[in-house]
Amino acid sequence: MKSNCKIHIFACLTIIIWGSAFPFTRIIGDQFSSATLACVRCLVPALLLLLMGKAFGLKKPAAKIDILWFALAGLGAFSGCSLFFNLGLETLTSSTASMVASIAPVLTAIGVWSIYKEKISPIGWICIVAAFAGVCVILFWQGGLSGGIGILWEAMYTLVFASYNVISRKLGSKGYSPMDIVTWSAVLGAVEMLAFVPATVSDFATATMPEALAALYIGAFPACLAYVLWNLALGMTRNTSTVSNWLFLIPLVASILGFILLREVPDMGTIIGGVIIIAAVILFSMKGVPDSNNQERIKL
Q1: Helix, strand, or coil here: 62?
Q2: Which residue of 97, 102, 216, 255 pairs with 92 in a disulfide if CB–CB is 3.0 to 4.6 A?
Q3: In whole angstroms, how large is the CA radius of gyration of the chain?
Q4: Rounded to whole angstroms, how far apart are CA atoms 183 and 128?
Q5: Considering the entire predicted model, what is its pTM?
Q6: DSSP category for residue 142
Q7: Does pLDDT of 42 surpass 70?
Q8: How far is Cα 15 from Cα 51, in angstroms, rounded to an integer?
């Protein structure tokens, strides 16, 4: 299988798993606090990834400055990211929250373009603008921005996650593998959440079995497996935007699962905006990155 095909397969699987995190978080949100869910999304993947790391030949941070970079990555992908994500879903539907989160590729593309000078073709920029416009259609379809403080929390989630994508690019250039990056980011993210461990234990002691299993699912799959797949995709491409633009599809996945699990019915704005987003992602994957920058970086 060609590496370019693997990149899109890994990214697609990631988006399906991440999309499921929105409705599952809303389902168990009444039982667990946002801090508890964030703690689970840090501790569970940290433990699982450390165990998996032995099979992947996990490399320890080579310098003290790298520990700082991993701590920032942990904030962007695990501790801060999870906390903002959960706080946003306290007041937003799965569909609306995922639409706000889909702005991440725009911020990622701007970040890697300004810092690492990654090239994006004119068509690529048009696709990014079009996908962002699709998000705006969904958010403003009913004549105003709804969601209150939840919009702010999800915007913060988007910002810190975009920073993780940019930092991952830097750590990869320093010789760390995708598994190294996601593992040490998770471990440092877990350290940043240690203060919430007592409350997390207390919440689990009173939780029902289905709710506890749902929380563990979020920790094992969206917060662990999905990040492994995501970092594999990032590690195989020279252009971060080729992978990060898949994030535009999360709203579609979250909306479908939100309807199935929570009976959240998308309005016409969601449907129209979703079509625009999907079309933009497909075109970007075909024409958005110059051929000279779209060569495989790492072959598995």
Answers
A1: coil
A2: 97
A3: 18
A4: 30
A5: 0.80
A6: T
A7: yes
A8: 24
